[in-house]
Amino acid sequence: QVQVVESGGGLVQAGGSLRLSCAVSGIIFGRPVVGWYRQAPGKQREAVADLTGDGATNYADSVKGRFTISRDGVKKTVYLQMNSLKPEDTGVYYCKVDFSPIGGREYWGPGTQVTVSS
What Å distances lie between residue 56 and 2, 35, 86, 93, 107, CA to CA? Predict the structure, then answer.
């Protein structure tokens, strides 16, 4: 089994920064695709950023240039550095670890709340 736990959320003023962490534990094989998603109140969950096993990154247009996804293989942790935060970045942020490209399944964390005040 694989466990995924996010941390680092909180309340921040517009223009501020936060760094989210996603700790992955359990039986891990290969280099899965890891991604961050968010869900604002009353809206569907949306993809924010992902990082493939070979190091390629993808970002939602709304966060390009402000957010950076990275991975520490030794610590088995995925990060999302968020700069120049805006009120519209508010939501619950979820981490997904996806082994399906290498024959496994995907795992989600319970989420961490990010609130950006104006």
Answer: 23, 12, 26, 21, 20
Pairing status of strand 10-13 against strand 112-117: parallel
Q: Tell me how far apart the alpha carbons of residues 106 and 26 are, in angstroms, rounded to a whole number.
A: 13
- Give 4's strand partners: 24
CB within 8 A of 26, min separation 6: which ones? 1, 2, 3
The span from the CA of 3 to the CA of 9, in Å, is 18
For 79-96, how does the pLDDT look when each residue is reduced to its tens digit (9 = 90+)?
A: 999 999 999 999 999 999
Task: Work out the pLDDT band at 100, boundaries 50, 70, 90.
Answer: confident
